[in-house]
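Appendix C: a fully annotated inverse folding record. The material below is reproduced so that readers can follow the format used throughout the book. The structure is listed first as tokens, followed by the designed sequence.
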């Protein structure tokens, strides 16, 4: 899947780069947030290291994992704060409610039968899959989760606005869910996370793999110019590797189910085979602006 950057996108990049430098406000004490500022309520804006807050919603796109493609049909929110950049890179600070990356299941096309096809399964697993089918339990989902602390997220406003380099780096794992798969069926882990290096520019996959091209999006201002909203932004990456699935079916069944899933999904899969295309609406404000709102609404 290839995204082509438009002239409008390039103009928006320039506008965004200028606009981000203008989101600076003075402020003081805290009380409560109102209006559109409520989306930033879980940003750690009273942390003196945090200068910006973000609330980004991925509401479209797809993730290709090995041979399996999963569309993003249920919106996923990434929220938190970040610091003043050093050499274009900002430190990220997780949401105060602990939900930095929302865990939202996405339906897997083909469901359980696509992940654990009976024809490639040992007799016991094939029988369990057939039993699940008889009881209407063939639905399966994939959920993105952070594999490391939020502090290991990397963000660059400059790269996002200019359409170059890594705009957002996420250490993730993907949970595969179905009653047969149990509670610990994952691709990626805390010890060996999948690393997404997402860009609004052009990816650099291995030779012979066509690059993906993202989009910066369109800029609007809200709440008297204190919130910058970036709509139709597309972050892409097809440079990441995916390990084998593990833990599927629990301790007893994992030795039988894991190999079947890995065969069906084509895992492990090297860089250039997998891809992420995330369609986003991104909101950014300053911590100083939030403190002003607090002070104005005791």
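Designed amino acids, in order:
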């Amino acid at each position: 899947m290839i995204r082509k950057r438009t002239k409008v996108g390039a103009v928006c990049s320039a506008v965004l780069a200028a606009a981000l430098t203008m989101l600076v406000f003075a402020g003081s004490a805290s009380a409560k947030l109102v209006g559109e500022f409520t989306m930033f309520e879980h940003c750690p804006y009273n942390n003196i290291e945090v200068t910006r807050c973000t609330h980004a919603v991925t509401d479209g796109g797809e993730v290709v994992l090995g041979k399996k493609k999963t569309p993003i049909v249920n919106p996923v929110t990434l929220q938190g704060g970040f610091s003043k950049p050093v050499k274009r890179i900002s430190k990220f600070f997780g949401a105060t409610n602990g939900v930095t990356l929302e865990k939202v299941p996405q339906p897997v096309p083909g469901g359980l039968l696509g992940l654990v096809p009976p024809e490639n399964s040992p007799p016991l697993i094939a029988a369990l899959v057939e039993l699940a089918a008889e009881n209407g339990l063939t639905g399966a989902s994939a959920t993105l989760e952070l594999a490391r602390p939020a502090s290991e997220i990397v963000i660059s406003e400059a790269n996002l606005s200019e359409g170059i380099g890594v705009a957002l780096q996420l250490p993730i794992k993907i949970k595969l869910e179905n009653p047969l798969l149990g509670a610990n069926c994952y691709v990626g882990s805390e010890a060996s996370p999948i690393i997404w290096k997402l860009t609004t520019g052009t990816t650099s996959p291995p030779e012979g793999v066509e690059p993906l091209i993202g989009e910066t999006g369109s800029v609007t201002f809200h709440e008297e110019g204190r919130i910058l909203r970036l709509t139709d932004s597309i972050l892409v990456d097809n440079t990441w590797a995916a390990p084998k699935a593990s833990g599927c079916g629990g301790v007893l069944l994992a030795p039988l189910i894991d190999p079947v899933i890995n065969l069906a999904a084509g895992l492990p899969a090297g860089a250039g085979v997998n891809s992420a295309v995330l369609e986003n609406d991104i909101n950014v404000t300053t911590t100083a602006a939030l403190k002003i709102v607090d002070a104005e609404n005791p």
